[in-house]
Amino acid sequence: MSLSFDRIPSISAVNLAVACLIAATSVGVAGPAALVESVVTQSASTNVMSYVETGKTFRLGPQDTMVLSYLDSCLRETITGGTVTIGIDHSEVQGGEVTRTKLDCGSDLVELTGSTAQFAGRAVRGLPPPEMAPSRGGILSGSNGL
Question: For residues 6 and 15, is the Cβ–Cβ distance under 8 A?
């Protein structure tokens, strides 16, 4: 009896790429999920304007307050007391109170169309040639003269 490889489905490069992408995102590297806007606490170990990752847990005292802004869901949470576990798009709060507000993240504020969509920036490296260097004629340096 001989084996025939004609009946084994071939794996295309696209299928392989999709499988690798799914595996990489499911294992994934944890990135920041939310930003700590403010914190009034003696017990939580975080700073204002610091990023927190998914899975991080904080224990807040009954009068402690924390305000979080979630990066992907555009959600702001004001949490008072309890145990807070950072999620992907919102927190899980046990034994405390949470108020959630949906923010307008302004995804429709900038729309590149036509000729504006062709250019995003310019990279300049090195010094300009001497003939292109700005003249030092009108440049003041030092004190402001007062």
Answer: no
How far apart CA 99 and CA 71 sit, in angstroms, is 17
57-70 and 92-94 as β-strands: parallel, antiparallel, unpaired? unpaired
Tell me if 55 is assigned to some domain: yes
Question: What are the beta bridge partners of residue 101?
Answer: 76
pLDDT at position 27, please? 47
> Residue 25's pLDDT is what?
47
Residue 97 lies in a domain: yes
Q: For the chain, what is the HEC assignment?
A: CCCCHHHCCCCCHHHHHHHHHHHHHHHCCCCEEEEEEEEECCCCCCCCCCEEECCCEEEEEEEEEEEEEECCCCEEEEEEEEEEECCCCCCEEECCEEEEEECCCCCCCCCCCHHHHCCCCCCCCCCCCHHHCCCCCCCCCCCCCC
- Does pTM top 0.70 for this prediction? no
Give pLDDT tens digits for 71-120.
989 999 999 999 999 999 999 999 999 999 998 887 655 566 666 555 56
Number of domains in the chain: 1
